[in-house]
């Protein structure tokens, strides 16, 4: 068990704690959370993302630029369009876990637990 903590840097004295706080700060914006949710199933262009999250393409582009600097998203050129995708599965998992925690805050049996119970 301790080997896992040292390998993943999960100790309380981890050098990555401050960087983790920056990750949380990057995700402390509803539009960025919605962008992560939109990108969880694959890449999308700015216009499609803007439509999904209900913001202007300019606003979504600004959020994506910050997320790209934070290495949460990456890009691929497709002709004249720029396609965005999540850099790895961790931002997707962080957002999913935050949504699940929010469901718990409402009380009762959260939707993600009902889905687990129904499949069992």
TrEMBL record:
<keyword id="KW-0805">Transcription regulation</keyword>
<keyword id="KW-0804">Transcription</keyword>
<dbReference type="InterPro" id="IPR001845">
    <property type="entry name" value="HTH_ArsR_DNA-bd_dom"/>
</dbReference>
<dbReference type="InterPro" id="IPR051011">
    <property type="entry name" value="Metal_resp_trans_reg"/>
</dbReference>
<dbReference type="InterPro" id="IPR036388">
    <property type="entry name" value="WH-like_DNA-bd_sf"/>
</dbReference>
<feature type="domain" description="HTH arsR-type">
    <location>
        <begin position="12"/>
        <end position="106"/>
    </location>
</feature>
<keyword id="KW-0238">DNA-binding</keyword>
<dbReference type="InterPro" id="IPR011991">
    <property type="entry name" value="ArsR-like_HTH"/>
</dbReference>
<dbReference type="InterPro" id="IPR036390">
    <property type="entry name" value="WH_DNA-bd_sf"/>
</dbReference>
<protein>
    <submittedName>
        <fullName>Metalloregulator ArsR/SmtB family transcription factor</fullName>
    </submittedName>
</protein>
<dbReference type="Pfam" id="PF01022">
    <property type="entry name" value="HTH_5"/>
</dbReference>
